[in-house]
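Ticket reopened. Same input as before:
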Amino acid sequence: MTSDRTATRLSRILALIPYVLAKDGAKVSEILERFGYTEAELTRDLNTVFFCGLPGYTPGDLMEAYIDGDEVIIDAADYFARAPRLTSMEALGLIAAGMAILGSGQGSPELGKAVDKLTRALLPDAGAAIDVDVSGDPENLAALKSAATERRVVRITYRSLTHEEETVRDIEPWAVVTTLGNWYVRGHCRMVDAERVFRVDRIRHMEVLNEEFERPKDLTDPGIGYTPSDDDIAARIKLSPGARWVLDYYPVDVLKETKTGIEIRFTSPDAEIPARLLLRLGPDARLLEGDEVRERLAGIAGTLQARYR
Amino acid sequence: MQNVVERVINLLIYLLDSPNPVTADQVRQTVAGYGEQSDEAFHRMFERDKGLLKRMGVPLELKATDKWEIDFGYTVDPEEYAIPDPRLTEQERVALSVAARMVRLGGTNAGLAGLLKLGGVEVGAGIEPLAADLGAEASILGDLFLAISEQRKLEFDYAGSRRLLDPYGIAHRRGHWYLIGQTVDGERVFRVDRISGVEIGKQARAFRRPKGFQVKRAMSTHPWEAGTDQAVEATVRFDPDVAWWAARHLGVEAPRVGELEVVLPVANRDAFIGWVLGFGPDAEVLAPDELRRQVLARVEAAVQAAG
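Engineering reply: fixed in the latest deploy. New output:
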């Protein structure tokens, strides 16, 4: 852990030096912003640089690094004229970030050019070797994104994941997020007067209303998640090892894991969801506990059996 | 930590500045911070510092110091050390930094650290209401990407057996990363979060990626299109209630009213049946009969398993 912090600090120093060298001095305020420094951190790092240099370590061998008024000065550091190359994770992180935003249809021509130049500099045919698809409906995403930016209320016709029915509701969108392969909009739902997360692909229609809302001030990371409530029904299910993917897609608790399978607790506001999941899994899942789910499964299965026989 | 940072910077300067490879002994006698140590403490320190440089992406190499290869020493080639300048304009750099802030990989904004090396990060742009989380499998992704870009062979555990692969590319689909490459049995796709025990081949450029290879084309769009089952064309009908939603998923035109009927190529029947059954009673496989029988068998198995 300590060495991770050391690496982070070193990386920043080795990026800072060539930047200041190339500009022949830079404003303190500019450095603080671009490199995410506090003034104390910058002073400390410059003091460190000041004590480093070529072997011999006489004043003439050391780098010069100090703050003069509102300017950062670094000199006698020719060997650090260019920044170190990106680590493979940094390179992938940048290219993937660019591709994800472009792929969602929310990128600009500048971003497209930047990704292009970057991949060409780093890996001549990276474009053929990396592909990021976060496909969502670009029009819906763009409309929700600009509604969130402009704090405009949106009226959506929504088919809920938990209750298989359609509702029309007004929402105050805070953030548009993709995770685990789906796009979500998180915000305040006026119909239930509470915070909710909606899957963008389940929004059938939407209309941006001419009405502004106030964003909560303490809004943090646009994370998403499902919070179980007291009214939820619970089922205990044993998954065979082949159905492990369920853990990635549903908010379940793992109760027990053995060689023969994984025992989970599945909580949901509606029996329909676990029932359909069991139907999908067929012999790969066994319902250990949960009468409502069993009943619902039997209902759907009955309909299907009559149809397919 | 203060001492470590100073010592490692001095070490890096020495390695960059020396025209010839330098031995561990030379490092110990020359670079500030190593001299006062016992043999054992020096070696521990030097190992740790080398590891730190490598993790930061510094191309530290061990080379013979003379043509008879009697002694070996360390060197950093200044050209290899420096970042290839992508010559981004100011607007392009800003666009990239906004994107890097929106996208998380492995629980962090992995691209941001890299942006410092390209001239810093734009902070002033305010909150972006868009965010993408590209999954948590970050540490291993870096290794895979390295192997792909340097054409090194990979060895890893997957679904209970050891695999050997010439890695061609990686792709992000439906929330997961996939690795594509050539095995002895042909081109294969692996889900990255199920890969473990990765070993990267020592030799760079150990294979050639076929000319014209495109990871985008090697990946199928829907999970049921990739498989080894005998391919069939399946006809499926969706109720009016869910027709728009199914159409959106399949990337086909949604009917204005009424139900949707589509013909889909299926190579992985398990995945396909699972997907259709996820619609509950709102979807029906109409043809072929053989596939209908398999759907029914799955429904019956589910009922039986529920007890």
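Chain A has a mean pLDDT of 87. The radius of gyration of chain A is 27 Å. Please confirm and we'll close it.
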